[in-house]
Amino acid sequence: MKFRDNIFILFIIFIWLGALATIQIRSTVDMQRQNAETLDLGKLKDQLDSKIKLGESYKAQITKLENDKEVFIKASSTNAANVQSKMELDYLRLICGLTDITGDGVIITLNDAEGPDVVDADSVMDYIIHDSDILNVVNQLRIGGAQAISINNERIISTSEQVCAGPTIKVNSNRYAVPYEIKAIGDPRELYATLTGNGLIDEMTTLGKRVTITQKEGIEIPKFSNDISGLISKLEVVNNESKKSK
Questions:
Q1: Rounded to two decimals, what is the model's pTM?
Q2: Which of 99, 137, 139, 218 is most solvent-facing, going by the fewest CB within 10 Å?
Q3: Residue 38 CA to its chain's centroid (Å)
Q4: Could you say which DSSP state residue 186 is in?
Q5: What is the structure's pLDDT at 2?
């Protein structure tokens, strides 16, 4: 009986020791897990703090740039020299044909004669619109005070040429066929009187060439759209101030 009691006591002791070991292992695992979670949270917090500081730095830079922009705009708008320079630049772009413009003026359309009854090839040439016809019209418009001229929406500037290319005409290196629409901005009555008062239009219409002239308000003429860098070469600006000082 005593031997059985001892075995029972040992059994109880082993159970108790096993329970303690289990509790100890669980406590160790829980502590390790808590430490790992605490470490991960610490890293995340550090990363978040770093991102917040970086965002605040960017925000400060943006604010500074916005302030600098406002200061620059105010300084530019109040600086008389800058305003004058901008006005002069805008005026130069206007007279050079580098800006779109609108105004009153005239619109001229030129077209070949409609089916001339001739056989001789040389005679046929008398009934079609040539580059010389267009050039004569453009020159008369300039005499009449035209401030801007376009041919088929090609802005005419000082270096523009109208070149005959077979049955077509090249304007600013672009090829066009009839009809040709010439727009001119200026005093409509003066332009009309100049065109019709020198016999140019009568000469063309006598040959059957179709010509119309319309006075119109709000004509739109686009800016010169080709590359201007190669239009003028081998020229040098003369410094007049240095010449005066000599």
A1: 0.61
A2: 218
A3: 56
A4: S
A5: 47
